[in-house]
């Protein structure tokens, strides 16, 4: 039996943030946009999977927080062919895309539509697993919300289970953050200007990113705070496994 949950500022994530992922145009272009804006995500997922200390043939269960189009879940199931995944996402439209991506793997996926801040409403205390993972989802939460989500994730995990998060962070330094954002915009323009008018130049790209982040209510923390959030939630062996500019793979063990 799983360990019972003993716990029941910046702006909290609101339903509007989830609703942003129900818009048809956003859903249709999501994976292409992610590859344009976050080309490291393929590498990040591979590193996250390498960190997990389980035999590839293990019969393990994972919980995916914010499944989106199923990008991470697909690679997890390919890496661990006897594993199953509990998929949690608040957007029905994104879940339908995930079902399409995972068409040959859906027998090993339990899709649950709901707000991952309320895991205790979707995951019974008797349901346990060895892994919790997430990618590009938890930066929508403020610090307090993250601590609570991680505490609920800890309850789901069996002893010595792992949580791995591939996500974005921000710099404590305004100067460094501005420079990183310039590097970010330059990269998107370089990759996208010939194929997407939204990214035709730096000004258009910056406007697109500002509007997107306002709609999504992004609120990334500095990596030092993200690590402390994991510790505050009860995780041990907390570490950064990979980082580049504003993207990191971090995690810890129960």
Shape: globular
Mean residue pLDDT: 90
- Cα separation of the termini: 15 Å
Strand content: 15-25%
Helix count, DSSP H or I runs of 4 or more residues: 10
Return the CATH class: Alpha Beta
Low-pLDDT residue spans: 4-10, 17-27
Oligomeric grouping of the chains = single chain
Helix/strand/pairing category: alpha/beta
Following the backbone from N to C, one meets helices and strands in this order, namely HHHEHEHEHEHEHHHEE
Within CATH, the superfamily carries the name: Vaccinia Virus protein VP39
Supply the number of structural domains.
1
In the CATH hierarchy, the architecture is 3-Layer(aba) Sandwich
Tally of extended strands? 7
If you consult CATH, what is the topology? Rossmann fold
Give structural notes.
The chain is α/β, with parallel strands linked by helices. The protein has one domain: Vaccinia Virus protein VP39 (Rossmann fold). 44% of the residues lie in helices and 20% in strands. The protein contains ten helices and seven strands. It has helices at 15-19, 24-37, 41-51, 71-79, 92-101, 119-122, 143-156, 174-192, 202-216, 223-233, and strands at residues 61-65, 84-89, 109-113, 129-135, 157-168, 236-244, 247-253. A seven-stranded mixed sheet has the order 3-2-1-4-5-7-6, with helices on both faces. Helix 7 (143-156) packs across helix 10 (223-233).
Which key terms come to mind for this protein?
seven-stranded mixed beta sheet, Rossmann fold, 254 residues, alpha/beta
Q: What's the quick description here?
A:
The chain has 254 residues and is of the alpha/beta class. 44% of the residues lie in helices and 20% in strands. It has one domain (15-170, 219-253): Vaccinia Virus protein VP39 (Rossmann fold).
């Amino acid at each position: 039996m799983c360990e019972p949950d003993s716990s029941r500022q910046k702006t909290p994530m609101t339903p509007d943030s989830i609703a942003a992922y129900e818009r048809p145009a956003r859903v249709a272009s999501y994976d292409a946009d992610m590859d344009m804006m976050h080309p490291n995500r393929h590498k990040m997922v591979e590193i996250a999977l390498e960190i997990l200390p389980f035999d590839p043939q293990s019969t393990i269960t994972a919980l995916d927080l914010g499944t989106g189009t199923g990008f991470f879940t697909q690679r997890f199931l390919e890496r661990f062919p006897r594993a199953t995944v509990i998929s949690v996402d608040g957007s029905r439209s994104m879940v339908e895309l995930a079902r399409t991506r995972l068409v040959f793997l859906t027998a090993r996926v339990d899709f649950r539509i709901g707000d991952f801040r309320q895991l205790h409403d979707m995951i019974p205390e008797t349901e346990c697993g060895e892994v919790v993972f997430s990618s590009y989802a938890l930066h929508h939460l403020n610090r307090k919300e993250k601590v609570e989500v991680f505490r609920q994730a800890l309850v789901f995990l069996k002893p010595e289970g792992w949580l791995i998060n591939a996500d974005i962070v921000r710099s404590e330094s305004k100067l460094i953050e501005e420079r990183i954002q310039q590097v970010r915009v330059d990269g998107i323009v370089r990759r996208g200007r010939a194929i997407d008018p939204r990214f035709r130049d730096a000004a258009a790209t910056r406007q697109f990113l500002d509007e997107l982040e306002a709609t999504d209510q992004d609120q990334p923390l500095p990596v030092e705070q993200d690590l402390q959030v994991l510790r505050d939630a009860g995780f041990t062996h907390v570490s950064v496994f990979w980082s580049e500019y504003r993207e990191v793979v971090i995690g810890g063990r129960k």
